[in-house]
Write a structure and sequence with these properties.
The chain is α/β, with parallel strands linked by helices and about 425 residues long. It contains eleven helices and 17 strands. The model has no long low-confidence stretch (mean pLDDT about 90).
């Protein structure tokens, strides 16, 4: 079935954090926007919004002050995508994102000028910037080293309270652990976080959970549990369970795919519901053509349903290998939609270092698209491939977001820069929708 072409100002390709953020920035600026792609990547998100945690990678140097870390990063790696933005731009991008998420029912907390430390499911402390409000009491408990109980569930795999306590107790003496059955599912061999989250939407089930936790509270001042406190309204559910238990209860991220990623996806979709965004989830782009008029013709699948979008600009936020933005074969790495040049090691033999755990990381992790200062991907001649094609997120070159702990920040900041560049490009022509 072929549908009539849909016209818009901006087409966003990709539904990870970069794509979601680009759509949010676009509709906030009055642009008619179409977004297409699979949200599979965002399901692996921890829910934490990293800004910059480590630099340089080879020294694994952590930064308590991410803004000072950005100064050092831009000085040392002038090709890094962050170098194309001012710190005021990055601050503005984060402020706008957090306000959007709050209005969509997913509030975050942070120390605006420095990073926080938060417990992980493997018993380490992670440096991050933006923290879901349901996890913030865990930040406070760690900062004050308050007596804290970590709870796990008999049938939940990948989360072990005893392991967390054993690893952290040398620096946090007031920790203790407890294992309980999850209410309603006590006879099941395994329970999944999504099922647990849906179960806790019911007040009666929350009371059953609180009754199981209360005997273990004793003299502790905080309780940490896996991030299963509802897919919707998690802050309200956490507050309700805290009142029932008698002390603040906070969440700890679980193994991906996780509820925290699904919450981000749902929050973005809810927040876009009343705005000028047309959303095509679980679809894919079957082809893109740049027409002589300067517009892009974007064809959207699946194969038996064809929708065509005619847009004045495109933000490419397709991610790297998991997202499908990049593909590696036996000889090289290529970009999958426009066949744009990809910055990469000279030969495949240089993709990886000899030592798998080399502290410098592998060169393939810095492969991606090179852009001009307006986030327009460069062609082989070093000039922008198209006047109104922009790129954002992990598909960009000269960054290793996993080791630098800057994934969400990179996605949000570059999406902000790309959308702003698109608006600036047409402002003098009065060409975008009002």
């Amino acid at each position: 079935m072929n549908l009539d072409p849909m016209e818009c100002d901006l087409a966003v390709i990709g539904c990870g954090i970069a794509g979601m953020a680009a759509t949010m920035f676009a509709v906030n600026r009055g642009l008619s926007t179409c977004q297409v792609g699979s949200p599979r990547e965002i399901g692996f998100a921890s829910g934490l919004l990293d800004l910059l945690g480590i630099h340089p990678i080879s020294e694994a140097k952590p930064w308590h002050d991410p803004w000072a870390g950005l100064d050092a990063l831009v000085r040392d790696v002038p090709q890094h995508p962050y170098a194309k933005l001012n710190k005021s731009d990055i601050r503005a991008a984060f402020d706008e994102l957090l306000e959007f998420l709050k209005s969509a029912g997913l509030p975050y907390s942070r120390h605006p000028e420095y990073n926080s430390s938060i417990i992980t499911h493997i018993g380490t402390m992670k440096t991050t910037y933006g923290v879901p409000e349901t996890m913030w009491k865990g930040v406070e408990a760690f900062e004050q080293k308050k007596p804290c109980l970590i709870v796990d569930f008999t049938s939940l795999k990948g989360f072990n309270a005893g392991l967390i306590v054993n690893r952290l107790k040398p620096s946090w003496p007031g920790l203790c652990a407890a294992r309980i059955d999850f209410p309603v599912n006590r006879l099941m061999a395994e329970v999944l976080p999504e099922h647990m989250a849906n179960t806790l939407a019911t007040p009666n089930n929350r009371e059953q959970l609180a009754q199981l936790i209360r005997p273990h509270v004793n003299d502790v001042e905080f309780v940490g549990i896996p991030a299963v406190l509802g897919l919707y309204r998690p802050t309200d559910i956490a507050s309700d369970i805290s009142q029932r238990v008698g002390v603040p209860v906070f969440e700890i991220s679980t193994m991906p795919p996780a509820i925290t990623g699904l919450r981000l996806k749902e929050a973005f979709e809810r927040g876009m519901g009343e705005k000028r965004a047309h959303y095509f989830p679980r679809n894919h782009v079957t082809g893109v053509k740049h027409e002589k008029t300067g517009r892009f013709k974007v064809s959207i699948g699946p194969d038996n349903v064809s929708q065509t979008v005619l847009s004045k600009g495109v933000v490419l936020a397709t991610g790297r290998f998991i997202g499908g933005g990049l593909h590696g074969d036996r000889t090289n790495i290529r970009e999958t939609l426009f066949d744009l040049p990809v910055y990469q090691p000279e030969t495949r033999t240089k993709w990886h270092r000899v030592d798998f755990l080399d502290r410098r990381g592998h060169l393939i992790n810095q492969a991606g698209l090179e852009t001009d200062d307006h986030f327009r991907p460069l062609a082989s001649n070093g000039r922008p491939a198209f006047e109104t094609l922009f790129a954002a997120g992990s598909i960009l070159a000269h960054q290793d977001w996993k080791r630098m702990k800057c994934g969400a920040g990179l996605a949000v900041a570059t999406a902000f820069g790309a959308v702003r560049a698109f608006v600036d490009h047409f402002r003098s022509k009065n060409y975008v929708s009002k």
